[in-house]
Amino acid sequence: MPPFAPVRVRGGRRALHRLVAHRRRALAAGLAVTAAALVAAGPHPGAGGQDTRRARGHPVADPVGGPVGGPVGERPGDRLVAAPVRIADAGTVRLLRPGDRVDVVAAGDGGAGDASVLARGVRVAKVPEPVAEAAVGGALVVVSVPRATAHRLVGAATTERLAVTLC
Which residues share a beta bridge with 141? Predict the structure, then answer.
């Protein structure tokens, strides 16, 4: 084989820079298309999935047993009802807003060890304006709970003092 002179390509550096510049553009375009696809495929309100309009930091409904940590025996098909509950401490009720999640606790008159949780992670539906003469006996809050839990809350409210804790 005869000896060859080195092969020199004119404009090689410029072609390399052009190739790198096009790769950057192709990568940027690919990332933009991926981001658009993720946004389009994301959750939409009213799409039948979980409630995407909920406030941040509030627990999501557990697919098996109602609200996360909810009472055993609640099924996802249980219809929610609005249950008015009189909370002993009116000052605590002033902290609540519709949409907040609370635990409703029954505090017995016997002492600190008698407290029991009646409902876990229930959503506050409404906080009515306090009536001046009723402020002595606590304050009213309306929670959204399954019918069986509403019955427990009403029964406990007749014999015990009720309190709430924010979730």
Answer: 85
Residue 63 included in any domain:
no
Q: Is 166 exposed, middle or buried (0-12, 13-18, 19+ CB in 10 A)?
A: exposed
- What b/e string do you get for 106-115 counting C-beta neighbours within 10 Å, with b at 16 or more? bbeeeeeeee
Burial grade of 78 (CB within 10 A; 0-12, 13-18, 19 or more): middle
Compute the distance between CA of residue 166 and CA of residue 93 in angstroms, rounded to an integer.
10
Helices (H), 3-89: 12-41
Which comes out higher in pLDDT, residue 98 or 10? 98
pLDDT digit string, tens, across residues 112-139: 567 889 999 999 999 988 766 555 678 8
Residue 79 and residue 26 share a domain:
no
Query: What residues make up the domain containing 49?
Result: 9-54
3-class SS of residue 63: coil
| Paired tokens of 108 | 């017995």
**CB contact at 8 A, 140 and 153:** no
Burial class (CB in 10 A: 0-12, 13-18, 19+), 146: buried
Q: Do 46 and 79 sit in the same domain of this protein?
A: no
* Among 166, 154, 158, 79, residue whose Cα is nearest residue 122: 166
